[in-house]
Specification:
This protein has 325 residues and is of the alpha/beta class. Helices cover 42% and strands 17% of the residues. The protein has helices spanning 12-24, 61-71, 85-90, 93-114, 150-169, 191-200, 220-233, 250-265, 294-300, 308-324, and strands spanning 4-7, 30-34, 51-55, 75-78, 121-127, 173-178, 180-182, 205-208, 214-219, 239-242, 247-249, 276-279. Helix 2 (61-71) packs parallel to helix 4 and helix 6 (191-200) crosses helix 10.
Length: 325
């Protein structure tokens, strides 16, 4: 890579990826384009070797075009997105603008800059939520989409744009779908950091509905390792699922998390579980997600390295260290 653009690189997953790439590819100039909305924190990437932070909006065509022209970019990893489902229900417009219009702006800038250059790479990072709720089995690459929230619908639309730019213009696009990420530096409105904070403070931990909605939880560093692998070895035009492969109900996740919090704080077993409070389910709450990652594992050789229990402990210890500061 002569120059790598990472959109949303000051966000949760993006900042982990930027730190990884800065460490492993110190000679590759890396430009982070981030609007620095509520979920971003420039301190996460401050002082990293070879990393330039540009504050701006991916919907700004003039800015995006200038970055391609002036930085010699030949690779893009596109994280930037509005991603909180509850926020998309309350205010969907921002999701349409960032996730759809922003993705179009980036694709168009790459097309104009690269032309028929096939050695470039545009990696579009998406979500398993585009497949909707599954009664059984696992979603696979090529399965029909069935998004059920404004967030997942906007990501599905951006996936289709990415695919269309590959088919129509030959743009070397790759798409990844990942399951729920967790780990250090996640915004505190997300389920795991929110639950940790409330358990520590012995406050109510809300659980939607009956708590049996099922998700697959992937440690963020394992996700970033997969993305680096797809960027370097993936086949343009292909889609890759990234998953741990072990679904958990929300209730089971919170029970495991509560037990880790109690262990780290040396509390009596079961103390944090007393914080659980069942609340009214949210609209359009998908019952079950499950994502197949065989293509990534077999074709590119990826395997997750962090067990669910280890990942939870590392996450809890991170947030408790912040609380102690």
């Amino acid at each position: 890579m002569k120059g790598l653009l990472v959109t949303g690189g000051a966000g949760f997953i993006g900042s982990h990826f930027v730190r990884r790439m800065s460490r492993r590819h110190p000679d590759t100039p890396l430009v982070v384009l981030d609007k620095l909305t509520y979920a971003a924190d420039p301190a996460r990437i401050q002082g990293l070797q070879g990393v330039e932070l540009v504050t701006g909006d991916i919907c700004d065509a003039a800015l995006v075009g200038a970055l391609f022209a002036s930085r010699g970019l030949d690779a893009v990893v596109h994280f930037a997105a509005e991603s909180h489902v509850d926020r998309s229900i309350d205010g969907p417009e921002a999701f349409i603008q960032t996730n759809l219009v922003g993705t179009f702006t980036l694709l168009e800038a790459a097309r104009r800059a690269w032309g028929s250059e096939t050695s470039a790479r545009f990696l579009h990072v998406s979500t398993d939520e585009v497949y909707g709720s599954l009664e059984q089995g696992e979603a696979r690459e090529g399965d029909p989409y069935a998004p059920n929230s404004p967030y997942s619908a906007s990501k599905a639309g951006s996936d289709h744009l990415a695919r269309a730019y590959h088919i129509t213009y030959g743009l070397p696009v790759l798409v990844t779908h990942c399951t729920n990420n967790y780990g250090p530096f996640q915004h505190p409105e997300k389920l795991i950091p929110l639950a940790i904070h409330r358990m520590v403070q012995e406050e109510a931990v809300p659980i939607y509905g009956d708590g049996l909605n099922t998700r697959d939880w992937l440690f963020v560093e394992d996700h970033c390792a997969a993305l680096e692998m797809v960027l370097s070895k993936g086949r343009p035009g292909a889609t890759y699922g990234i998953s741990q492969g072990a679904g958990q109900t929300n209730l089971a996740l919170l029970e495991a998390l509560a037990d880790v919090v109690d262990q780290v704080l040396n509390r009596p077993a079961g103390s944090s579980r007393r914080c659980f409070t069942f609340v009214r389910d949210r609209p359009g709450h998908d019952r079950r997600y499950a994502l197949n990652s065989e293509r990534l594992r077999q074709d590119l050789g990826w395997q997750p390295e962090t067990s669910f229990q280890e990942g939870l402990r590392r996450t809890v210890e991170h947030y408790l260290s912040l609380a102690a500061l």
